[in-house]
UniProtKB/TrEMBL annotation:
CDD domains: Ubl_ubiquitin_like. Gene3D superfamilies: Regulator of chromosome condensation 1/beta-lactamase-inhibitor protein II (2.130.10.30). InterPro entries: RCC1/BLIP-II, Ubiquitin-like_dom. Residues 3-74 form the Ubiquitin-like domain. PROSITE patterns: UBIQUITIN_2. It comes from the Eukaryota. This is Ubiquitin-like domain-containing protein. Transmembrane segments: none annotated. It comes from Symbiodinium microadriaticum (Dinoflagellate).
Length: 275
């Protein structure tokens, strides 16, 4: 029996949809996107919890008359210094490419649809679709990546890609020198909650606070023999060769090489929040 579910935007616009308990949250998101005529990035329940796209409506606890909030997907341009072109991800999930994309990314269509995220490197482009799958051009994508339907994020160094899966694991491909091979830390890549990329390294933070990195040390990768933990991390970002983590205390921890090539202290230094 179909349920009546009320979906609202922060702007106040709303729509009432019908969905069966066996329909997926992804189906509900697509229906809301079509009715509201705007790109929707995710759905959140009344308790502020993000609804996993691969789960069923009944599985996430939605009942008759449930009210959920939709977050709008903003338009953005994706590229990098050595990317073969520019990629505009529109709010409705479509992508427009221009520049030297034909020679740099063989087989890349001028327009893609149903795209949640795009990552670009010098070798090509990887697009995360709304169904949790990844399409890749220009950089050889492992067969198993194309078969996955539970990918939540993709990130890129200058010559490699890494994908964060819904189960907290990570898979990567591309240049082994610049992060395309995580074999050395593979056994540690579980329960990952945050992932980021510099030009030549990836850093992942686990639920227990453990920091795992791979790639080039000159781009912020830390030695596997140098374990470090950070707790209460809200955000992880990167520059060309450094990483910074924002903590729930308001402090910031950073490491690697600074934006202007000024070396940070050998040990991670915690910066105090300025009032």
């Amino acid at each position: 029996m179909a349920l009546s579910i009320h979906v609202s935007l922060l702007s106040g616009r709303s729509v009432r949809l019908r969905a069966t308990p066996t329909a997926t949250v992804q189906d509900l998101r697509q229906a809301a996107q079509k009715k509201l005529r705007t790109g929707i990035a995710s759905l959140v329940n009344s308790e502020g919890e993000l609804l996993g796209p691969e789960k069923c409506v009944g599985e996430v606890g939605l009942r008759e008359g449930a009210r959920i909030t939709a977050t709008v997907q903003q338009a953005r341009i994706v590229s990098c210094r050595r990317s073969p072109g520019f990629f505009l991800v529109r709010g409705d999930g479509s992508v427009l490419a221009w520049g030297d994309v034909c020679s740099g990314s063989p087989g890349l269509p001028r327009e893609l649809r149903g795209v949640r995220q795009v990552a670009a490197c010098s070798g090509g482009l990887a697009a995360l679709l709304s169904n949790g799958q990844v399409l890749s051009w220009g950089s050889s994508c492992p067969k198993e990546v194309g078969q996955l339907t539970d990918i939540h994020e993709i990130h890129a160094t200058e010559e490699a890609f890494a994908a964060l899966l819904g189960d907290g694991s990570v898979i990567c491909w591309g240049s082994e020198r610049l992060g395309g091979n995580s074999a050395e830390v593979k056994e540690q890549l579980f329960d990952i909650k945050l992932l980021a990329a510099s030009l030549g390294a990836f850093v992942a933070i686990r639920e227990d606070g453990r920091i795992i990195s791979w790639g080039q040390p000159c781009y912020g990768a830390r030695s596997v023999d140098e374990p470090y933990e950070l707790h209460g991390v809200l955000q992880l970002v990167a520059t060309r060769g450094a990483f910074a983590a924002l903590l729930d205390t308001g402090g910031v921890v950073s490491w690697g090489k600074g934006v202007r090539n000024a070396e940070s202290r050998a040990a991670m230094c915690q910066l105090q929040e300025y009032g």
